[in-house]
Amino acid sequence: MIYMVEMALLDTARRAEWEEWYTAHQHRLLSIPGIHASQRFECIHITPAPFVALHEVNGPQVFSSDTYRASAGPSNTGEWQTKMGNWHRNLFRGLDHTPDVAMDARLVVIERNCEAALPRHADVRWMEAVGLDRSVRRRGLAVMAPANADLLADTPGIRVLKPLAGRLVGAA
Q1: Which of 64, 81, 62, 102 is nearest to 7 (CA)?
Q2: Which of 40, 48, 38 lies closest to 111 in space, CA to CA?
Q3: In contact, 131 and 2? CB cutoff 8 Å
């Protein structure tokens, strides 16, 4: 399953500090049983939630575990909780693994009924929200070359994201 977190950083003057905190947060998440991979992205165009993190999880039981509740989730984001806006957490079924988006590629996030704008060869993987906020019902992901993806920037219902770092994988 895919655990997708999206947000805006409200205190942009502290971006470098936030990036450092978030990387440490990813490593903390990967130490939790049932969380296997994590990668972060930033939108290349203006959008209300320009930052996205994709985490690969076993299922909804991860979020009710004592380990998760003790070291992750909204109550464990410290001062950053109030410095992130447009924050949504959705759990999706439809993909077992997060895509491994290379640094020279793009992740394209597609909302329902917006796929007509995509090139015919786009390999979209559709997911259905099954837990947490459920702020959307259905969402697609596609990994594309920048030459194709960047043309979609500013298309309603589509976000084009660049990786902030490579995909992190937890201990098996």
Answers
A1: 81
A2: 48
A3: no
The domain tally of the chain equals 1
> In degrees, to the nearest 5, what angle opens at C-alpha 6 toward C-alphas 111 and 29?
130
CATH code for the domain in which residue 15 is found: 3.30.70.100
pTM: 0.94
pLDDT, one tens digit per residue, over 105-145 is: 999 999 988 888 888 888 999 999 999 999 999 999 999 99
Q: Per residue in 45-96, pLDDT tens? A: 999 999 999 999 999 999 999 999 888 877 777 788 888 889 999 999 999 9
φ, ψ of residue 5 in degrees (nearest 5): -115, 130
